[in-house]
């Protein structure tokens, strides 16, 4: 190959049409999942203080929100519930008339083709805020599995299209798969939070979901941030137990993990562009320090480029508007 001046790599960057034609990674609305926080009451739309533009919705307001999301071409939502009552075992999380179960039925009745994914975890429903049953100050892995299985089945019964365990208990994918199959829900896939790190980027979510732990932290069951090889073991185990889709969470600070998982496994993969990542961008944009549209598209493209097939992001509605209107500006 002849070098410069015959070889000029800048030739294919000359204008936007050329750049689009040779672009290696494409971000699409169909890649996106929008998180929804659902709460009891009527006419409730509470903006989350640390997450501008994100709200807690009462179930009666979901039809309009679901229609708006579907109209943007976003194919899926993931639901998180805020219950009226919490107890030691997170009982309200697996009741047939729980807030998430009501939300599933409402959305599927309003927009049947909108894919509904449900978060399967006890943290939003327990009085102590941990992701499992607590015994003597520690989360009991094996006792928690049965409650997670009950929750997953209750979501499937309500009409959920996909269940997504996020608790990081060992063996939960296998137990949920078994429970779904025994209950006649063999066709309901499991999206496993396979490599979920004990991250400082979750703070705003815990305000939105009202799920902060009341004592200690979650480092005994969520992954240690410096570890990558362990993530491969976690993903491998969840695939062996029956996970249909695996996920890395968070996304932006863990692009290397996404890439390692993609290079190791030929399996559908999601990544969660989490609340702290969202809020940092929104806060900086509000100060005029960054261009929100450009930086958001760059971040999501990086997540896609690293290997994610699906991106869960609070930016989804804005990104959909930008992509659908063709209002995508080049960086400068």
Number of domains: 1
Helix percentage: 25-40%
The residue-averaged pLDDT reads 92
Which architecture does the CATH hierarchy give at level 2?
Answer: Alpha-Beta Barrel
SS-derived structural category:
alpha/beta
Overview of the molecule:
The chain has helices at 16-21, 62-71, 99-110, 141-158, 172-182, 203-209, 229-241, 255-264, 275-286, 292-306, 316-325, and strands spanning 32-39, 45-47, 55-58, 76-82, 115-120, 133-135, 138-140, 162-165, 191-196, 245-249, 269-273, 310-313. The protein is of the alpha/beta class and 332 residues long. α3 links the parallel β4 (76-82) and β5 (115-120). α2 packs across α3.
Short synopsis of the structure:
The protein has 332 residues and is α/β, with parallel strands linked by helices. Helices cover 37% and strands 17% of the residues.
